[in-house]
Amino acid sequence: MAKLRLFLTQHQVDMKIISGRQNIRYLTGFSGNAATLLVSKNEAYLITDYRYYERAREETQNIKVELRDRDAETLGRCIARCFPSFESVAFEAAHYSVEQWHAISADLPYKHLKSASGWVESLREVKDEQEVSFIQRAAQIADESLEEVLSLVKEGVEERELALELDYKMRRKGSEGVSFDTILLFAERSALPHGSPSARRLKHGDFILIDFGAVVNGYRSDMTRTYVYGKPTDKQKSIFNTVQQAQRRALEHVKQGINCEDLNRLAHQVLADSPFAKYAGEGLGHSLGLDLHEQPFLKPNTSYHLKSGNVITIEPGIYIPNFGGVRLEEDIVVTEQGYQCLTNAPQTFEL
Fold this sequence. Notes:
The protein is an alpha+beta fold and 351 residues long.
């Protein structure tokens, strides 16, 4: 909150209207939705309705929780009631539709309204020790759950059956939910980078691609493993080895100060030099935290130099239509000299 208030001073803004759910959680600890946060240089109000009022009071400190009757008072009028006399106010344009902002701004008395997205997101890029510990625990839950689910792999099992078991086991081990809809695909369907589990049944020789994550105190993990059920063909082994080599090339160079696009280029060069170059995925990874995909992204034309405390994924992939795909993904925290790996499930290929 103190760092955010420095932005207010630097940009000559009296108050910031924050509506991004994860931005609000990051700044206040409030884990619900249907809330708006107002931050001035000296005060902060969290506006919510009767459904979340008591919860907001329990989860926040040094924040004034303001109850709004949605039927009797517009959000704009409530904002103006909390702070009636400011000149310049910034808002998160990325988190409002045009229609929503027109309705809110019609009731605001401020002389200057400025679009100012990305302030809180920039603060969230570097994780502190507590944040890293949450992601590490989420990754541990995912590691343990995957190990148990792999014992259920057998011929004839459905994609959606295994996916459901994986989600259930993560919840049983303490996950608040799933980091995202679990991706679990067999055979040629593994070439769908973000496919949904279906009724497809497993057969010997099929690829098995599993991309999933757990959630601890709002913080997410994100891991991918790819297997073959039975003895892999030479082509399957070649694809797997290429992806694994690309990931290792990137990991060898991860440390504070390296540019994201350079890291992506190093891994992509391995894929580009392989027989599967035209099937390579474009990006190498992304940051993660309260959101699954956060800044920075590891992809072309992304000039961001990694900082100690960034938590990122390294996930090269090859996706061949009508044949299958391989992706390997690790969650790592960047350090001054290298990185610490948070995901620890073995990269076994043959099941």
